Amino acid sequence: MEQRVARVTEIIGGSPVSFDDAIRAGFERANRTLRNITGMRVLEQRVAVEDGKIAEYRVRMEVIFVLET
């Protein structure tokens, strides 16, 4: 049986549209740099407020990826 080792890194994704869009933006950006992503976990959701309105949706996420041997 082949052994695998994974690494976890944190990223923050942001979007002016929605939390879902912030997650997608974070994933798409991570996917350009990291190989072998196997999962993500949303740790926190926040919003940035400007002039009494939501300016940006932000998510802090863990990205799990398998290290190459």
Contiguous uncertain segments of 5+ residues: none
The CATH homologous superfamily is named: Flavin-binding protein dodecin
End-to-end CA span: 14 Å
Number of beta-strand segments: 3
CATH first level: Alpha Beta
Query: What is the chains' assembly state?
Result: single chain
Q: Judging from the principal axes of the Cα atoms, what is the shape?
A: elongated
Order of helices and strands: EHEE
Q: Roughly how much helix do the residues carry, as a percent range? A: 10-25%
Describe this structure in words.
It is a single chain. The mean pLDDT is 96. This protein is α+β, with helices and mostly antiparallel strands. The chain has a three-stranded antiparallel β-sheet, with helices on one face. The longest helix has 15 residues, at 19-33. 22% of the residues lie in helices and 55% in strands. It has one domain (6-66): Dodecin subunit-like. It is elongated and about 55 Å long. It starts with 5 loop residues before the first strand and ends with a strand.
